Amino acid sequence: MFRDFLKASMNLPASIDDTLSLLSKADYVGDRSLATVLFLSLKMGRPLFLEGEAGVGKTEIAKVLSSTLGRRLIRMQCYEGLDVSSAVYEWNYAAQMMAIRLAEASGETDRSRLESDVFSERYLVKRPLLQALEPATEGPPVLLIDELDRTDEAFEAFLLEVLSDFQITIPELGTVKAAHPPIVIITSNRTREIHDALKRRCFYHWVGYPDIERETKIVRAKVKGSPAKLTGQIVRFVQKLREEDLFKKPGVAETLDWASALHELDTVALDPGVVNDTLGVLLKYQDDIDKIGGGKVEQMIADMRREMKV
Fold first, then answer.
1. How far apart are CA 119 and CA 113, in angstroms?
2. What are phi and psi of 206, to 5 degrees?
3. Residue 6 pLDDT > 60, yes or no?
């Protein structure tokens, strides 16, 4: 097992520059501060806690690590009411009942043996957190705990044992401990504050909106064939849009969706008509669309064109 782990560890980045290259291999345009904390997280075996607005690329980081390092991606999507049976494990009660009935029909009378059989790993349904502790020949998996802020504080407290010791106790089987910790990426859209006790177990990074230069590189990398002039206009328009007082500002994900949509429409340059017709790709609330649509779009495009000529 150690030999397999050592082999898998050799493909981890050896420096910050290597980490930047790793991200770029999957067309993820990251900055040096992200590469630094990601490198340290991988090097020191610490979970990485990523906060930021929705759609800025937090979840994508885990996907990039999985594809570039050749590791399995285990994703736990968080939601209100998430509990141990959905996140860690549960027993296959239907199969257990069937086994008990078959044993009784065959004349099995040893209750202790029967109990040991039905509470064996054969009937254990493993959920994401338990799966992440299992050994793998390609190396520890990438565990993505996505949108942790959607869960309640009780579940957050349960994670403390997992992130501290990378172990889970199953009363019927005992303690399951990872031979080698998984690569853990935790994301939050900051709809509520995450407790300090959990944050202390992680390295932290805020993923903000990219500047014009970096967002232009992202669109060029992800939307192949988009004209250079149009790409520049798209990014500048979205950057201006984020300066407005909106209920939900467009993230990088919306920029990419919009660029792809305009490319499908064979658009070569932004004009008020096409922007108004496609605002629903960028903005997800009608109040925001009403605020920006019409004359406001015309003014923003005029301002953008003036800036691009300077």
1. 10
2. -90, 125
3. no
Q: How far apart are CA 74 and CA 138, in angstroms?
A: 14
Q: Are 248 and 284 in contact (CB under 8 A)?
A: yes
Structure tokens at 95: 């199969």
Give Cα 306 to chain centroid, integer Å.
Answer: 38
Please give the model's pTM, rounded to 2 decimal places.
Answer: 0.88
Local structure of 285: helix, strand or coil: coil
Q: Give me the sheet containing 183-188, strands edge to edge.
A: 73-77, 142-146, 183-188, 48-51, 203-206
Answer yes or no: are the C-beta atoms of 206 and 266 closer than 8 Å: no
Task: Please choose, from the candidates 288, 214, 229, the residue with its C-alpha nearest in 3D space to the C-alpha of residue 259.
Answer: 229
The residues near 128 (Cβ < 8 Å, ≥ 6 apart) are 74, 75, 76, 87, 143
Indicate the fold that domain 2-88+127-206 takes in CATH: Rossmann fold (3.40.50)
Q: What is the 3-state secondary structure (H, E, C) of 7-43?
A: HHHCCCCCCHHHHHHHHHHCCCCCCHHHHHHHHHHHH
**pLDDT tens figures, 169-179:** 888 888 889 98
Q: Mean per-residue pLDDT for 165-187?
A: 91
CB neighbours of residue 101 within 10 Å: 10
Q: Give CA–CA dist 127/115, Å, rounded.
A: 22
Query: DSSP strand E in the chain: where?
Result: 48-51, 73-77, 89-91, 124-126, 142-146, 167-170, 174-177, 183-188, 203-206
Predicted local distance difference test score (pLDDT) of residue 7: 44
Tokens of 294: 């019409």
Label residue 107 left, alpha or beta by phi (over 0 means left) and psi (-120 to 50 means alpha): left
Residue whose tokens read 């020191």: 44
φ, ψ of residue 55 in degrees (nearest 5): 90, 15
